[in-house]
Design brief:
By secondary structure, the chain is mainly α. It has 2 domains: about 30 residues; about 50 residues. The protein is built from 3 helices and no strands. Helix 2 runs antiparallel to helix 3. The N and C termini lie far apart (about 45 Å).
Length: about 80
């Protein structure tokens, strides 16, 4: 095969692989921003849990609100599916 044909085949193979990767990524992370939000909220809850307890009840209230936010975000993900 000549160089032009080889280059064309290589470019086509690369385009096919990239296209397949995009579709696979969409299938596995159909709600990437919502999934990222759940991850961030879960981390925030862990940080609140690790903080010292004496915060006048605000730490506990914040943990409760984060739990609610996680639940609502997950419900949004389910609804969108």
């Amino acid at each position: 095969m000549n160089t032009i044909v080889k280059s064309g085949l290589a470019a086509a193979a690369l385009a096919t692989a990239l296209s397949a990767g995009v579709f696979i990524g969409q299938a596995t992370a159909d709600q990437p921003h919502m999934q990222n939000a759940v991850t961030a909220l879960t981390r925030a809850r862990s940080e609140l849990q690790a903080a010292t307890a004496d915060k006048g009840g605000h730490r506990a209230k914040a943990m409760n609100l984060v739990d609610q936010a996680i639940a609502e975000t997950r419900a949004g993900i389910r609804f969108a599916r």
